[in-house]
UniProtKB/TrEMBL annotation:
Domain DUF5683: 67-239
Signal peptide: 1-20
UniProt keywords, alphabetically: Signal
Domain of life, per lineage: Bacteria
Family matches, as InterPro entries: DUF5683 (IPR043738)
Name the record gives this protein: DUF5683 domain-containing protein
Organism: Pedobacter endophyticus
The organism's taxonomic lineage, starting at the top: Bacteria, Pseudomonadati, Bacteroidota, Sphingobacteriia, Sphingobacteriales
């Protein structure tokens, strides 16, 4: 009887130890596994694709350069058109002069347009007159060459001028025509340059806060023989 009770106790002890070992093993295996939390994905979420343009920094566009190119293009086609474009910029209120009185600037721009066409008009009249006089002197010279130096009795000069004087007059008016043609190019170039400069200056900072300061300074330089200092003036601009 005692042996049976002892056997029962030993058997129950082993059963309890075995169950405890199984339970401990299950707990440890569960703890050793690292769980990873996965966030749910919303169905309405759209993935934004990064393009090359989005990844690059937007390039800076200088409005002064753009306006200058447009003014030059217009002035090259029709003289004075670039100046009219600059007046349009004033009306649109672009640039650093926006909000300020533009009356004097418009009058000045209009005067430049009038000066451009006045210059072309004067040059045209000069070219016509030089061509007319050149043909008269040339005709007189051709007549004298064909008649042994005798002046044309029906010509406008008669015997007032010698043959050398007629030759000099012909060369002078021919040279005047060439000068007029060169002056055409100068006025045309001045028209283009003025339109470009005015368009660029319209976007420059010319407000009341712009100032400059001149102060004495020294320009230093190192040479083979030692230190050299040259007196100079230092110009400082404040925007």
């Amino acid at each position: 009887m005692k042996f049976l009770i002892l056997f029962t106790l030993i058997t129950g002890l082993f059963v309890n130890l075995a169950s405890a070992q199984v339970r401990d093993t299950v707990i440890k295996s569960t703890d050793s596994v690292k769980t990873q939390v996965i966030k749910p994905v919303r169905k309405d979420t759209t993935t934004k694709v990064m393009s090359r343009q989005d990844s690059m920094k937007a390039a800076y566009v200088n409005p002064g350069k753009v306006a200058g190119r447009k003014a030059v293009f217009r002035s090259m086609i029709i003289p004075g058109w670039g100046q009219l474009y600059n007046m349009q910029i004033l009306d649109d209120g672009y640039g650093t002069r926006a909000g300020k009185s533009q009356t004097l600037q418009k009058v000045y721009t209009g005067a430049k347009i009038a000066a451009i066409y006045a210059g072309f008009t004067v040059l045209t009249m000069s070219y016509i007159e030089s061509t007319k006089q050149y043909k008269l002197f040339l005709k007189e010279l051709q007549y004298r060459d064909a008649n042994n130096g005798a002046p044309d009795p029906n010509g406008p000069f008669g015997s007032r001028y010698s043959t050398s004087g007629i030759t000099n007059g012909k060369d002078t008016y021919r040279r005047n025509r060439q000068i007029v043609l060169g002056s055409y190019l100068l006025v045309y170039a001045a028209n283009v340059i003025d339109a470009y400069v005015a368009a660029r200056l319209h976007f420059f900072n010319i407000d009341d806060e712009l100032s400059f300061k001149v102060s004495p300074s020294v320009i230093t330089s190192n040479s083979l023989y030692g230190f050299n200092g040259t007196p100079a003036l230092k110009l400082s601009l404040t925007f």
